[in-house]
Each structure stands twice: as C-alpha cells, then as structure tokens.
Amino acid sequence: MNLKIAVLSGDGIGPEVILQAKKALYAIGVVFDHEFVFEDALIGAIAIEKTGNPLPEQTLNLCLNTDAILFGAVDDSKYDTHSDSKSRPIQGLLKLRQALGLYANIRPIKPYNDLLDLSPLKRKIIEGADFIIFREISGGSYFSEKKINEQGTLASDLCEYSEEEIIRISHLAFRTAQKRKKKVTLVDKASILETSRLWRKVVTEIAEGYPDVTLDFLFVDNAAMQIIINPKQFDVILTENLFGDILSDEASVITGSIGLLPSASLGNSNALFEPIHGSYPEAKRKNIANPIASIVSAAMLLEHFGLHIESQKVYEAVHKAIELNVVTADLNPYSKFGTNEVGDFISNYILSKDDLYFKSDNVYIGQSTIV
C-alpha cells in the first residue's frame, strides 16, 4: 500500500514525538513492503510566527490532498488565555477540523498491565478497563456563535447541534460497539440542556436499528464520577464536544500518564491521528517527552486503512518497550531513556525483534546501553 501522509508536528514537544511515530511507520513500511510518503507543514504557534496564520493555506491544501494526517500538538505560553492576540494556535486545529469535515474524535482507554500501579486509582478498579470515548468535534459551543460586549463584562457561547451532526457520529459509535461488548453509554445533561434532550431523542431512535447493542444514559456529572470509581462498566461512551473534551482527559488518569493515549479524528473522507497530550512546552527539546501516544496514534492510522497486522506489530513493539522498561521518566523516574531512545527501540523491534540494539539484561536493571 502507498499512503501520502501530511505531518503537522506543530508546537512544543510535537516535532519530537511525531518523529518517533514516523520512525515506527518507516519500519512498518520496510517490513511489510508499504510506502509511506511524508510531507511536513506548519500549524499552530510556529505557523503564526512564520506566516501570521495558525492554519496557512498551503497546510490546508496539503491536508485536503493526502490520505491521512499525523498531528503533534499546538499551543505556546505566549498565546495563553490572557493574551490580546487575535490569532491563537488552537484556532489552527479547530479550523482544520472544520475544513476537513472531521466530526468524530475517538479515544481508546485501556491501561497497560505493566503500568497499572502508576495510576492514582487502585489496581482493582482499573484492571480490565477497556472502553472508547466517541466525542463529537464539529459542533457545540466550540463552533457556535460567540459574543462579548464592548465592556468585556458579558460573554456567551451558544451551544447548538443539529440532528445530522448527532446521527453521523452515533452510527459510528454503535457500529464499534457491535464489534466489542455491545454497549453504548450516552453522556449528556438532558435534565437541563435542550441540546442534550435532542441528543437523547436522536440516539434513542438510532439505537432501535442496533438491537444487539444496549443503550444506557448518564448525566455528565455522574459520568465523571463513574469513570473514576468503576471504569470497567463502560464499553463505548458517546457524547458532545465539551463533555467529551473534559471526560477523555479525565479518563487518562486510568492509564497513569497522558503520554500514553492516542486518538483519531474522522470525517467522511479525511482522517487525522494525534496524541491527546498538549504541547508541553517545558519539555521542548529536552528529550524527555513520552512518544508512545504518538506512536500508537500511528498504529490507529494503520488500522484505519485496514492494515491490522501492521497495527498489531506496532502495539507489540510498544508493549515490549514497556515490559523491558524502555520508557521515559513519566513512566519510570529512574529511566535513562529519552524520547529518541524509546522511539528507536520501538522502530528497531518492528524491524527485527531478535536483533535489538541494547543488552536486555542491563535494561532490566535500569542501565542505559544505547549504542
């Protein structure tokens, strides 16, 4: 298979972790005889600095004419919420989602057995947890009308959804549940919000077409609590933009590090794959950022194109890195391995698991032997 992939590394640690994802894909290409052509483009703060636009036309045109997008992170401390700048890095990502028609953000939550003790939650609570959050990302308060008065003392963000926006992501969620544990949980606030009542009405109607899938409902405040006290009850969580943004980040505590979690953003004809962590500018160019989320996002890219054996090979390599403690300091504070070393190990394992470039006995006792 030949795939053209737009690489939008973005800001902060984005370039470092995306480089490791590219290494893994290159290794997959070598082993399985695929050709992945990467083309880099600007987005976010770096794009503002170089072009004055968080999403330059050249970047958008590239993304519209590629098979998939590998995305890093956007944001920079100088564009924080107190900045007077009219152009912010996050606008580049939001505009890209709109332009590509991306409407479903998919975030799998499944802790690694070797890392269960890293979570602040008890092992007995999280062991065996395995669910996916389907977050609608094209509507709601993030994209609807926004107002602020001249004095800057009154503001509003309209939350608006149409039936069509709800229908298209709901079908994705139900079809995924059919292949898993056959349960969808709709998270809303239907006791108060009209948009939530519309969600509940539409999703209930759609559920009738999936008689093998159980549908239940949780108010968002209860869902936030249940994710912490009993995450194993969930299979597929379906929710709107704002709720999904908050809940998916909350769910990252189950795995012990936000640096482990990938995501896919899908539309009818476009797909973007990215780690859920932010730009983490404090770690920029320090070789300490965890690249696993980006590498597993690349695995999701492979799976999206039906390359399931190849995707499993990436997961196998990631599991082996964790098993042998070839990880960054967020997973092991005594680790001697950095972003590049973890990426090198994973790509090398994909190329030849029997010809690794380190001495495994020394890795087990925590001594770096990268050569």
TrEMBL record:
Binds 1 Mg(2+) or Mn(2+) ion per subunit. It comes from Flavobacterium yafengii. Homodimer. SMART domains: Iso_dh. Residues 4-346 form the Isopropylmalate dehydrogenase-like domain. It catalyses: (2R,3S)-3-isopropylmalate + NAD(+) = 4-methyl-2-oxopentanoate + CO2 + NADH. Its cofactor is Mn(2+); Mg(2+). PROSITE patterns: IDH_IMDH. GO terms for cellular component: cytosol. Catalyzes the oxidation of 3-carboxy-2-hydroxy-4-methylpentanoate (3-isopropylmalate) to 3-carboxy-4-methyl-2-oxopentanoate. The product decarboxylates to 4-methyl-2 oxopentanoate. The lineage of its organism: Bacteria, Pseudomonadati, Bacteroidota, Flavobacteriia, Flavobacteriales. Belongs to the isocitrate and isopropylmalate dehydrogenases family. LeuB type 1 subfamily. SUPFAM superfamilies: Isocitrate/Isopropylmalate dehydrogenase-like (SSF53659). One of its GO terms (molecular function) is magnesium ion binding. Pathway: Amino-acid biosynthesis; L-leucine biosynthesis; L-leucine from 3-methyl-2-oxobutanoate: step 3/4. InterPro entries: IsoCit/isopropylmalate_DH_CS, IsoPropMal-DH-like_dom, Isopropylmalate_DH. This is 3-isopropylmalate dehydrogenase. One of its GO terms (biological process) is L-leucine biosynthetic process. Its EC number is 1.1.1.85.
